[in-house]
Each structure stands twice: as structure tokens, then as C-alpha cells.
Design a protein that fits this description.
Elements: H1 2-18, H2 22-33, H3 38-45, H4 54-90, H5 109-123, E1 127-128, E2 134-136, H6 137-140, H7 152-155, E3 160-162, E4 165-167, H8 173-181, E5 186-195, E6 207-217, H9 222-237, E7 243-250, E8 253-262, E9 279-288, H10 290-295, E10 304-311, H11 312-320, H12 333-336
Parallel strand pairs: 1-5
Antiparallel strand pairs: 2-4, 3-4, 5-6, 6-10, 7-8, 8-9, 9-10
The protein binds phenylalanine.
Length: 341
Amino acid sequence: MKEKLEQLRRQTAEALEALSDKKALEELRVRVMGKKGSLTELLRGMGALPAEERPKVGQLVNRLRQELQEKFDAREAALESAAKARRLEAERLDVTMPGKRRPAGGLHPLNQVLEELIDIFQSMGFDVVDGPEVETEHYCFEALNVPKDHPARDMQDTFYLGENLLLRTQTSAAQIRVMEGRTPPIRIICPGRVYRADEVDATHSPVFHQVEGLVVDKGVTMCDLKGVLEQFAREIYGPETRVRFRPSFFPFTEPSVEVDVSCSECGGKGCRICKGVGWIEILGAGMVHPNVLSVCGIDPEVYSGFAFGIGLDRLTTTRHRISDIRLLFENDRRFLSQFAE
Ligand code: PHE
């Protein structure tokens, strides 16, 4: 009997060592310790022993049961911790590995230049206002001193949306809305889309962008206009930049000027960018016409003002040496991604 017990101890210990998962362990546990297991069978065999040996053998069987119980538990714990170690190893992350880069979005070059421009004018005390792209003839032309039969309308043919409604040809329309709604002093810029019935080519697009500027106050002169525009041009194109006024005509300003800046590429000597002239035209401007002030209920005897209209697309193409304005509207990511910051 003793030998049988000893044999069971040894065999069980070996089998425990040999198995490698919990399922096999549970099967072995049933085979040895279960109701029909080897140990129970040995216990039954005790009936055949002489009565005086039974207590002793019973004790041995009980001790073996306890011992095996502990062995099973220990082996189970060891299997569990080995499985856990394997799982951790498999799930291990190398945090030093380079990450996957996601392509980041970026501002459109037009918006980048616009933000810069807004910064510059805000630092000079200008508010930014918005105006509708669908305008009435009144705001886009009549109030700006362009009556129905005026030849200046030809230059700004646009898309009509019905009687009296059109897509604005110039952000100047916003001047009127601002003067109607505010009392001087007024200092605003109004950026936005404008439309004209133009054929598309490298320098024309039926939709483009302007930034209108308007200042109205007592004693505003052309010197103020020049000072503001020089400050603006130097911040955009660099401190060496020179500004020149050429006489021009706009129905809503008097006198009117075209404003050129010295070419930032060649410094004025003439190059491909400025087409050899050394200057680049960037905006139209002038002193607000007295008729325009009057229409808006501002007394031209008391107040004066200046206005300017910057071509944002032109500013952007010269700034980045973009040769074709169409690139700004095609949304080709190969082009745009060059400007992502
Ligand atoms: N609105 C004019 C244009 O589109 C530009 C301009 C604005 C001129 C303000 C003078 C004053 O050509």
C-alpha cells in the first residue's frame, strides 16, 4: 500500500511537471483526486487491510491528498503567471518607434496673406467688417456715384440675379453700408469675394478677392492715406519698399490714384516678376467723393475720408511668385501643400 502511495506521488508530480496548460492540469486533477480518481481508489482498497494498519494508512493517504492538493495549486499558479508573462510579452509596445504622421491641413495662401493683412490694419486701429456678396445696384453702383448709364459700369460687368440684384463687383459696396450704419470716426477694412464677368486666364478670374479700406473723420487728408499705405506696404513687402501714387479715376473717390509698390524681387530695377517696370500695382485708392459722403448722411463740409481697395489675389501671387492666378482656385493639393505651415 505504501508503495502504491509513493508511486502515485511520483507519477503525479512528474505528470504535473510535464503538462503545460490549465486544461491538462484540471484533467489530471480529476484523474487523481476526483470521485473516481486514483487516490479515491486507493482509499477504497484500504478495506482489504488488517484493521490495525488502517488508521496509519489512512493518515498517509490524507497527508498525500494534502500534499498533492498543494502541488496542484502551486503548479496552477505557476502556469497562470507564465501565461500572463507570455501575454505581456506579446502585447508589448515599443514607445520609441517613430509614429505615423498624419498629413496636417493648412491655411490657403490667400487666407495666410489675408490674416497677415488683417493683423497689420488692426494694429493701426481698423475694425474688420463683413458685407454681402449678393448686393443691390444701389450699394454696388448708385451710392458709389456710378449712375445707371455711367461708362464705369462697363468695366465692371457682373452676374445679375434678377431685377436690381447682382454679385458685387467690388468690396466698395461695404463702404456705403458702413457709413450708413456708423458715425465717424470710421476706420474699417472689409475683405471678401467679388465677381466680374471676365474670361478666365492667367491673370483674370470671374471670382477674386478684395480688401476694402475706409477711413472717415474730421481733417483726414491724402497724407494720411499715403502714410497708412506705406506702413502697410513695408510690413507686407519689407522695410525697403517704396510706394508711388499714379493719378487715376474712380467715380467714388476724388482725387483717385493707382498705388504701386517697388518690386520686392528686384528692388525696382526691373525683372520678370514686375515685367521689367520695377513697380507692381497692388491697389486703387482715393479721397472719398463728397457725393458718396452725402448719400450716406455724412456732411462733406465737416468730414473727409479716404478709401482703398486691395487686390488680395495679386498680393498673394506677387508675394509667393505664383505665375497663374488659376492656381489659387483649383484646390490642387500638390500646389496648396507647399504653403501649409
Ligand atoms: N473698388 C475699386 C475697384 O474695384 C478699387 C477702389 C477701392 C478704388 C476704394 C478706390 C477706393 O477697382
